[in-house]
Sequence to fold (255 residues):
Amino acid sequence: MNEIRRMVLRGAGAAAMLAAGLVATGRAFAATWNKDAFGAKNSHDALASLGAQNAVQSKDVIIEAPEIAENGAVVPIEVSSQVPGTRSISVLIEKNPFPLTAKFDFTPEAVPFLKINVKISESSLVRVVAEAGGKHFAASREIKVTIGGCGG
Amino acid sequence: MAGAMKARATVKDGIADVRVVMNHPMETGLRKGSDGKFVPQHFIQNITVKLNGRTVVEGQISQAVSRNPVFSFRIKGAKSGDKVQISWLDNKGETNNTEAAVA
Fold:
Protein backbone atom coordinates (compact mmCIF):
# COMPACT_ATOMS: atom_id res chain seq x y z
CA MET A 1 0.00 0.00 0.00
CA ASN A 2 2.81 2.43 0.83
CA GLU A 3 4.40 1.60 -2.50
CA ILE A 4 1.22 2.67 -4.27
CA ARG A 5 0.85 5.86 -2.23
CA ARG A 6 4.46 6.81 -2.99
CA MET A 7 3.91 6.26 -6.68
CA VAL A 8 0.80 8.41 -6.73
CA LEU A 9 2.53 11.20 -4.76
CA ARG A 10 5.42 11.11 -7.20
CA GLY A 11 2.91 11.69 -9.96
CA ALA A 12 3.63 8.31 -11.50
CA GLY A 13 1.80 7.76 -14.75
CA ALA A 14 -0.62 5.12 -15.90
CA ALA A 15 2.24 2.85 -16.91
CA ALA A 16 3.47 2.68 -13.34
CA MET A 17 0.00 1.93 -12.00
CA LEU A 18 -0.28 -0.80 -14.60
CA ALA A 19 3.02 -2.26 -13.52
CA ALA A 20 1.76 -2.30 -9.93
CA GLY A 21 -1.05 -4.56 -11.04
CA LEU A 22 -3.70 -2.06 -10.04
CA VAL A 23 -5.27 -1.78 -13.44
CA ALA A 24 -6.73 -4.82 -15.12
CA THR A 25 -4.75 -5.65 -18.22
CA GLY A 26 -5.91 -8.02 -20.93
CA ARG A 27 -4.62 -10.80 -18.73
CA ALA A 28 -5.34 -10.50 -15.03
CA PHE A 29 -2.67 -11.30 -12.46
CA ALA A 30 -2.65 -15.02 -11.86
CA ALA A 31 -4.46 -15.17 -8.54
CA THR A 32 -4.94 -18.93 -8.64
CA TRP A 33 -2.97 -20.85 -6.11
CA ASN A 34 -3.53 -24.59 -6.10
CA LYS A 35 -4.54 -25.08 -2.46
CA ASP A 36 -5.14 -28.80 -2.86
CA ALA A 37 -1.75 -29.48 -4.38
CA PHE A 38 0.15 -27.17 -2.02
CA GLY A 39 -1.79 -28.52 0.96
CA ALA A 40 -0.99 -32.16 0.20
CA LYS A 41 1.07 -33.72 2.98
CA ASN A 42 2.79 -36.28 0.81
CA SER A 43 4.23 -36.37 -2.70
CA HIS A 44 1.72 -38.93 -3.94
CA ASP A 45 -1.26 -36.69 -3.14
CA ALA A 46 0.49 -33.57 -4.42
CA LEU A 47 1.28 -35.27 -7.73
CA ALA A 48 -2.29 -36.54 -8.00
CA SER A 49 -3.58 -32.98 -7.45
CA LEU A 50 -1.39 -31.88 -10.33
CA GLY A 51 -2.61 -34.73 -12.51
CA ALA A 52 0.96 -36.00 -12.58
CA GLN A 53 0.55 -39.36 -10.86
CA ASN A 54 1.60 -41.19 -14.05
CA ALA A 55 4.80 -39.23 -14.57
CA VAL A 56 7.54 -41.22 -16.28
CA GLN A 57 11.20 -40.90 -15.38
CA SER A 58 13.05 -38.90 -17.98
CA LYS A 59 16.69 -37.97 -18.56
CA ASP A 60 15.39 -34.78 -20.18
CA VAL A 61 14.31 -33.38 -16.84
CA ILE A 62 17.43 -31.98 -15.27
CA ILE A 63 18.14 -31.09 -11.66
CA GLU A 64 21.29 -29.32 -10.53
CA ALA A 65 21.58 -29.20 -6.78
CA PRO A 66 24.17 -29.69 -4.07
CA GLU A 67 24.57 -33.24 -2.77
CA ILE A 68 24.87 -31.84 0.70
CA ALA A 69 23.21 -28.61 1.76
CA GLU A 70 24.87 -26.99 4.76
CA ASN A 71 21.94 -24.72 5.39
CA GLY A 72 18.56 -26.31 4.87
CA ALA A 73 16.90 -22.89 4.95
CA VAL A 74 18.46 -21.84 1.65
CA VAL A 75 19.17 -24.65 -0.81
CA PRO A 76 19.77 -23.41 -4.36
CA ILE A 77 18.44 -25.70 -7.05
CA GLU A 78 18.36 -25.32 -10.81
CA VAL A 79 15.75 -27.24 -12.78
CA SER A 80 15.07 -27.45 -16.48
CA SER A 81 13.32 -29.62 -19.01
CA GLN A 82 14.48 -30.53 -22.48
CA VAL A 83 11.25 -32.33 -23.25
CA PRO A 84 9.86 -30.52 -26.30
CA GLY A 85 6.79 -28.44 -25.59
CA THR A 86 7.35 -28.28 -21.83
CA ARG A 87 4.68 -26.00 -20.39
CA SER A 88 5.29 -26.37 -16.69
CA ILE A 89 7.78 -27.53 -14.11
CA SER A 90 6.91 -28.48 -10.54
CA VAL A 91 9.30 -28.99 -7.64
CA LEU A 92 8.48 -31.31 -4.73
CA ILE A 93 10.53 -31.92 -1.60
CA GLU A 94 9.57 -35.35 -0.37
CA LYS A 95 10.21 -34.97 3.37
CA ASN A 96 8.90 -31.43 3.80
CA PRO A 97 5.60 -31.08 5.71
CA PHE A 98 4.01 -30.03 2.40
CA PRO A 99 6.09 -31.43 -0.47
CA LEU A 100 4.89 -29.22 -3.35
CA THR A 101 7.14 -26.17 -3.31
CA ALA A 102 6.73 -24.56 -6.71
CA LYS A 103 4.85 -24.88 -9.96
CA PHE A 104 5.96 -22.64 -12.80
CA ASP A 105 4.13 -22.30 -16.11
CA PHE A 106 6.07 -21.25 -19.19
CA THR A 107 4.77 -19.78 -22.43
CA PRO A 108 6.65 -20.74 -25.61
CA GLU A 109 8.62 -17.50 -25.14
CA ALA A 110 10.25 -18.72 -21.97
CA VAL A 111 12.86 -21.43 -21.62
CA PRO A 112 11.57 -24.17 -19.28
CA PHE A 113 14.23 -23.32 -16.74
CA LEU A 114 14.19 -22.13 -13.16
CA LYS A 115 16.65 -21.37 -10.39
CA ILE A 116 15.07 -21.25 -6.99
CA ASN A 117 16.15 -21.30 -3.33
CA VAL A 118 14.19 -23.72 -1.19
CA LYS A 119 13.87 -24.84 2.42
CA ILE A 120 14.51 -28.51 3.07
CA SER A 121 13.54 -29.70 6.52
CA GLU A 122 15.62 -32.88 6.52
CA SER A 123 17.63 -34.94 4.03
CA SER A 124 15.18 -35.67 1.29
CA LEU A 125 14.47 -36.65 -2.27
CA VAL A 126 13.72 -33.65 -4.44
CA ARG A 127 11.37 -34.44 -7.33
CA VAL A 128 10.96 -32.33 -10.45
CA VAL A 129 8.03 -32.94 -12.77
CA ALA A 130 7.70 -31.37 -16.21
CA GLU A 131 4.47 -31.29 -18.16
CA ALA A 132 4.48 -31.35 -21.94
CA GLY A 133 1.56 -32.14 -24.20
CA GLY A 134 -0.53 -33.37 -21.30
CA LYS A 135 2.11 -35.91 -20.27
CA HIS A 136 4.38 -35.73 -17.26
CA PHE A 137 8.10 -36.41 -17.05
CA ALA A 138 10.06 -36.64 -13.83
CA ALA A 139 13.50 -36.79 -12.31
CA SER A 140 14.67 -36.84 -8.73
CA ARG A 141 17.76 -36.17 -6.69
CA GLU A 142 18.61 -36.86 -3.07
CA ILE A 143 19.81 -33.82 -1.11
CA LYS A 144 21.36 -34.30 2.31
CA VAL A 145 20.82 -31.55 4.83
CA THR A 146 23.07 -30.98 7.81
CA ILE A 147 20.96 -28.21 9.41
CA GLY A 148 17.22 -28.49 8.73
CA GLY A 149 15.45 -25.59 7.06
CA CYS A 150 11.94 -25.32 8.43
CA GLY A 151 11.92 -24.12 11.98
CA GLY A 152 13.66 -21.63 14.20
CA MET B 1 17.61 -6.04 5.94
CA ALA B 2 17.45 -7.34 2.40
CA GLY B 3 16.50 -4.20 0.54
CA ALA B 4 14.03 -3.52 -2.26
CA MET B 5 13.03 -5.96 -4.97
CA LYS B 6 15.62 -5.89 -7.75
CA ALA B 7 15.94 -7.55 -11.11
CA ARG B 8 18.73 -7.76 -13.63
CA ALA B 9 18.49 -9.08 -17.17
CA THR B 10 21.33 -9.73 -19.60
CA VAL B 11 20.97 -11.13 -23.11
CA LYS B 12 23.18 -13.51 -25.02
CA ASP B 13 22.30 -15.19 -28.32
CA GLY B 14 18.72 -13.98 -28.06
CA ILE B 15 18.09 -15.44 -24.62
CA ALA B 16 17.74 -13.14 -21.66
CA ASP B 17 18.96 -14.36 -18.31
CA VAL B 18 16.80 -12.76 -15.65
CA ARG B 19 17.69 -12.74 -11.99
CA VAL B 20 15.36 -11.28 -9.39
CA VAL B 21 15.83 -10.77 -5.67
CA MET B 22 12.69 -10.33 -3.62
CA ASN B 23 12.31 -9.03 -0.10
CA HIS B 24 9.85 -11.19 1.84
CA PRO B 25 9.88 -13.08 5.17
CA MET B 26 8.33 -16.22 3.63
CA GLU B 27 7.05 -17.31 7.05
CA THR B 28 6.00 -20.96 7.10
CA GLY B 29 3.83 -20.65 10.18
CA LEU B 30 6.06 -23.25 11.84
CA ARG B 31 8.58 -20.86 13.31
CA LYS B 32 8.27 -19.56 16.87
CA GLY B 33 8.92 -15.91 17.44
CA SER B 34 10.79 -14.48 20.42
CA ASP B 35 7.49 -14.46 22.36
CA GLY B 36 7.27 -18.23 22.03
CA LYS B 37 4.24 -18.02 19.73
CA PHE B 38 4.14 -19.33 16.17
CA VAL B 39 4.69 -16.56 13.63
CA PRO B 40 1.69 -16.68 11.25
CA GLN B 41 2.13 -17.80 7.65
CA HIS B 42 3.13 -14.94 5.39
CA PHE B 43 4.53 -15.91 2.03
CA ILE B 44 4.51 -15.09 -1.67
CA GLN B 45 2.11 -17.32 -3.58
CA ASN B 46 2.13 -15.97 -7.12
CA ILE B 47 4.85 -14.59 -9.36
CA THR B 48 4.48 -13.18 -12.85
CA VAL B 49 7.28 -12.44 -15.29
CA LYS B 50 6.52 -10.29 -18.34
CA LEU B 51 8.57 -9.28 -21.35
CA ASN B 52 7.43 -5.93 -22.76
CA GLY B 53 4.08 -6.34 -21.03
CA ARG B 54 3.46 -9.93 -22.19
CA THR B 55 3.39 -12.66 -19.59
CA VAL B 56 6.07 -15.28 -20.23
CA VAL B 57 6.32 -17.07 -16.90
CA GLU B 58 3.80 -17.58 -14.12
CA GLY B 59 4.72 -19.27 -10.89
CA GLN B 60 2.86 -20.55 -7.85
CA ILE B 61 5.12 -21.09 -4.85
CA SER B 62 4.78 -22.28 -1.30
CA GLN B 63 6.06 -21.21 2.09
CA ALA B 64 8.96 -23.62 1.51
CA VAL B 65 10.68 -21.18 -0.82
CA SER B 66 13.49 -19.46 1.09
CA ARG B 67 13.18 -16.14 2.84
CA ASN B 68 14.01 -13.21 0.54
CA PRO B 69 13.57 -15.38 -2.52
CA VAL B 70 15.97 -15.25 -5.44
CA PHE B 71 14.88 -16.61 -8.80
CA SER B 72 16.42 -16.95 -12.24
CA PHE B 73 14.49 -17.30 -15.47
CA ARG B 74 15.38 -17.44 -19.15
CA ILE B 75 13.35 -15.66 -21.79
CA LYS B 76 13.67 -16.25 -25.54
CA GLY B 77 13.65 -13.64 -28.24
CA ALA B 78 14.73 -10.84 -25.97
CA LYS B 79 16.93 -7.97 -27.10
CA SER B 80 18.81 -5.19 -25.43
CA GLY B 81 16.43 -2.52 -24.19
CA ASP B 82 13.44 -4.85 -23.81
CA LYS B 83 11.62 -4.49 -20.51
CA VAL B 84 11.26 -7.33 -18.04
CA GLN B 85 8.57 -6.83 -15.39
CA ILE B 86 8.29 -9.08 -12.38
CA SER B 87 5.56 -8.97 -9.77
CA TRP B 88 4.44 -11.02 -6.82
CA LEU B 89 1.31 -11.49 -4.73
CA ASP B 90 1.36 -13.00 -1.24
CA ASN B 91 -1.16 -14.80 0.94
CA LYS B 92 -2.16 -11.53 2.61
CA GLY B 93 -2.92 -9.87 -0.70
CA GLU B 94 0.22 -7.73 -0.59
CA THR B 95 2.07 -7.17 -3.82
CA ASN B 96 5.29 -5.77 -5.17
CA ASN B 97 6.86 -5.44 -8.56
CA THR B 98 9.99 -4.31 -10.34
CA GLU B 99 11.14 -3.68 -13.86
CA ALA B 100 14.52 -4.02 -15.52
CA ALA B 101 15.75 -3.27 -18.98
CA VAL B 102 17.57 -6.07 -20.73
CA ALA B 103 21.20 -5.09 -20.91
Strands of chain B lie at 6-12, 15-21, 44-51, 54-61, 70-76, 83-90, 95-101. The interface with chain A takes residues 15, 19, 28, 30-33, 45-46, 48-49, 51, 53-67, 69-77, 85, 87, 89, 94-97, 99 of chain B (CB under 8 Å). The radius of gyration of chain B is 15 Å. The CA atoms of residues 29 and 35 of chain B lie 14 Å apart.
